[in-house]
Amino acid sequence: MSSIQDIQQEIIEEFEMFDDWMQRYEYMIELGKSLPLIDEKYKTEEYIIKGCQSKVWVHADLKDDKIEFTADSDAIITKGIIAILIRSFSGQPPQAILDADTSFIDKIGLKEHLSPTRANGLVSMIKQIKLYAVAYQAKAES
Amino acid sequence: MATASTTSTLDVLRIRKDFPILNRKVNGQPLVYFDNAATSQTPQQVIDVIVDYYSNYNANIHRGVHALSQEATDAYEQARIKLQKHFNIPNAYQTLFTSGTTHGINIVASGFAEILKAGDEIIVSALEHHSNIVPWQMLCEKTGATLKVIPMTTSGELDMEGFDAILSEKTKLVFVNHVSNALGTVNPIEEIITKTHQVGGAVLVDGAQASPHIKANVQALDVDFYVVSGHKMCGPTGIGMLYGKEKWLEKLPPYQGGGEMIDQVTFEKTTYAGLPHKFEAGTPNICGGIAFGAAIDYMNAIGFEHIAAYEHELLTYATQKLQEIEGLRIYGESKHKTAVISFNIGDIHPYDIGTILDKLGVAVRTGHHCAQPIMDFYKIPGTVRASFSFYNTKEEIDIFVNAVRKAKSMLG
């Protein structure tokens, strides 16, 4: 299993192949289609991430001390963003997720989505992923 | 061949020079600003008034003996008279400055808290902005009055038979927007006012969306209350107006306690100042009021008939161009609407379309436009809303329509 840093570097290199924002967005939309989809039973209010104009659901499960994330969104660009995050964090131990930095988002030309006023709630998604890591870490220690 | 702009009733290219912001670029593209229903842009003439105020006569008003205070007071009261004349209000003291439409609505709602009792009814329309619904729900909770809703039709108009069915002697207040912010529908407020008066009720009209396009004559309408916001009429944010009939303004209790609204204070009793100060506690938004007056002057110099005719031309052109896009559905198809187009394309989320349009330099609104009940009616998460102003052009509409096509091909 590659480290979070390796995966993020891989994503950065993939996005560097594109000359303009349009190609980057098209690629992101493609990535959205490969998102490990959340089980329909978790698509409830409880798993919704607040602060997004579109709906985003994220679910996390601990398997062999690693967190597996699944998600979905009703907006395709949001789905692409969450797919990038999940690719980077899914299958990693909780501590590694907590330690990871998220500046790679900036490096792939999606900086505008990091603004807290942005309606897609990328910041909320990252927060939610880290919260799951906190929870599973606490559980492991107890 | 003539360019699209020259077919208009306005010299738009000259008007555009008044708006410095229209020269800027967004994401490397020339800005196409189609979010006018959220806030209008500010002409240099209004910006100059704001700069002049802070550069030359910034002072607190109504109390000072010194020259600056006098000048500021004069300018502020002159602005009030500009608003009074614009809306054909009988007296300047019935022209109350507020911080905006929502503030005006809350003044009326809190005043009615003292008047309503259990069993009374308030009617609101299904086309309301959230800010129009929440204060009335709170008022009903407080007084035991009941909230009734005028239903809407699929074309985005008020169902007037539905209105007749809920209107009764119990109706104390009807609350309706002149123009719907989400769909642009112009509501039949004349009919609503006449019928409500027949049963002895009062009518509060939210003119926020109408005021940039329609010059409302409050006396001809015979409306009881009319509220507007300065920032939708080329003025600054944080300033608005509440008009009220004299009998109502006398009857309603003050909204807030504080400076300016007091006549005499002793420990036994406070007597309130007369209108308009009774509703204008504290130091007001002096510069905002003066700039609002300047904005009204600016719009009147162009002329509301010209503005309405030109914006209708833009609306017709944009509607026609958008309808050529396969799978695009326009919400709000009333024959009477302002220059607002709310739409979706197939199942594409409005947020996705808005994001791509932004990358292409086109500013629109996406989401539920603070009108969740309308979105629930159509069973959609929201719409993309493009709203036009007199400084927009057909060339910009072409750029916008191409951007929508591009978004569709990327997202579809």
Automatic annotation (TrEMBL), chain A:
Residues 12-130 form the Fe-S metabolism associated domain. Coiled coil: none annotated. InterPro entries: Fe-S_metab-assoc_dom (IPR003808). PANTHER family: SUFE-LIKE PROTEIN 2, CHLOROPLASTIC, SULFUR ACCEPTOR PROTEIN CSDE. Belongs to the SufE family. This is Cysteine desulfuration protein SufE. It comes from Leeuwenhoekiella palythoae.
From TrEMBL, chain B:
Its EC number is 2.8.1.7. It catalyses: (sulfur carrier)-H + L-cysteine = (sulfur carrier)-SH + L-alanine. Signal peptide: none annotated. GO terms for molecular function: cysteine desulfurase activity; lyase activity; pyridoxal phosphate binding. Gene3D superfamilies: Aspartate Aminotransferase, domain 1 (3.90.1150.10), Type I PLP-dependent aspartate aminotransferase-like (Major domain) (3.40.640.10). Residues 32-400 form the Aminotransferase class V domain. Pfam families: Aminotran_5. Its cofactor is pyridoxal 5'-phosphate. Belongs to the class-V pyridoxal-phosphate-dependent aminotransferase family. Csd subfamily. This is Cysteine desulfurase. It comes from Leeuwenhoekiella palythoae.
